[in-house]
Write a structure and sequence with these properties.
Layout: E1 5-10, H1 14-30, E2 36-40, E3 53-56, H2 65-68, H3 71-74, E4 81-85, E5 89-91, H4 98-104, E6 109-113, E7 120-122, H5 130-140, E8 144-146, E9 148-156, H6 159-175, H7 180-189, E10 194-197, E11 217-219, H8 238-249, H9 262-268
Parallel strand pairs: 1-2, 1-4, 2-3, 6-10
Antiparallel strand pairs: 4-9, 5-11, 6-9, 7-8
């Protein structure tokens, strides 16, 4: 269908911006000519003024969830097929265009399942407020469901998708923590033509031991975070920002995480 394509990336804070620099380099290598819409408090140094788009947003929550869920309205309206990538990902193959091809085939939303041993699992209670778990169970009828990963997804510009993103934002703002529960509630409210891919298309070196090869993308969870451990309460709350200040105060120099590069990930899997 030759739809207009583009990639959306957000990054706030030094760790996330460092990861975004690496991601942009990998996009340039494997998808030359692919425009990127970058959302942050200031642009990345290597953005191409003739190709890319920079969008300013406030640094409103420590996980950049608010900016992430604005993907539909912040990306250029002429982009008919949009791929969102977490800053802590790295493109390793031009086969990543498969996400766009699925959208061009008529699917409205493409996402991967979470990298867990069981396809269907129970939401981890320690990562959600009790009130959100109650709302999830009331909305879905169960807490056992297919886990979806909100770090990589593609969408088409349709009315159904637009309303889905409105509801995903509203659902996340209720509790302000992880966006997975909000994602599930928004999907129930807004049925779409959704295609679910396996973890080889959103490959986590640390959690994908049963997959022998990544298809097109590596994902290094935690590499972009500016805090350590679990943050209680809302990610846009006072305790969250205090956790960031405390974490940054303990770091005189950020030590690269194992797996930050593709070579590091290979070493981690014993391939070096």
């Amino acid at each position: 269908m030759d739809m207009t394509r583009g990639i959306y990336v957000t990054a706030f804070g030094k760790p996330a911006r460092d990861c975004a620099d690496r991601l942009l380099t990998s996009i340039r290598k494997f998808l030359p000519g692919m425009p990127v819409c970058f959302c942050g408090s200031e642009p990345l140094a290597d953005l191409d003024p003739h190709l890319d788009v920079f969008v300013v947003q406030p640094d409103s929550d420590i996980g950049a969830r608010g900016a992430k869920l604005l993907a539909y309205e912040l990306t250029p309206p002429e982009w008919e097929a949009v791929l969102y990538l977490d800053a802590d990902t790295e493109v390793i193959s031009s086969d990543l265009v498969f996400y766009f091809e699925l959208i061009e085939d008529g699917w409205e939303f493409v996402i991967c399942k979470d990298p867990m041993r069981e396809d269907v699992a129970q939401l981890p209670r320690q990562k959600y407020d009790a009130a959100e778990l109650v709302e999830l169970e009331n909305s879905l009828g169960t807490l056992h469901m297919l886990m979806l990963n909100g770090g990589v997804w593609a969408f088409a510009r349709t009315d159904a998708v637009r309303q889905f993103f409105v509801d995903w934002q509203l659902e996340w703002e209720k509790f302000g923590r992880r966006d997975q529960g909000a994602l599930l509630r928004a999907l129930v409210k807004n049925p779409m033509r959704m295609y679910v891919l396996g973890n080889e298309w959103n490959y986590f070196p640390a959690y994908s031991s049963r997959i022998t090869q990544a298809a097109a993308l590596m994902h290094y969870p935690g590499a972009a975070r500016r805090w350590g451990g679990q943050v209680p309460g809302r990610l846009d709350g006072e305790m969250a920002w205090e956790a960031v200040k405390k974490h940054e105060a303990t770091l005189t120099q950020r030590r690269p995480k194992d797996g930050l590069t593709r070579e590091g990930a290979k070493t981690r899997r014993g391939e070096a």
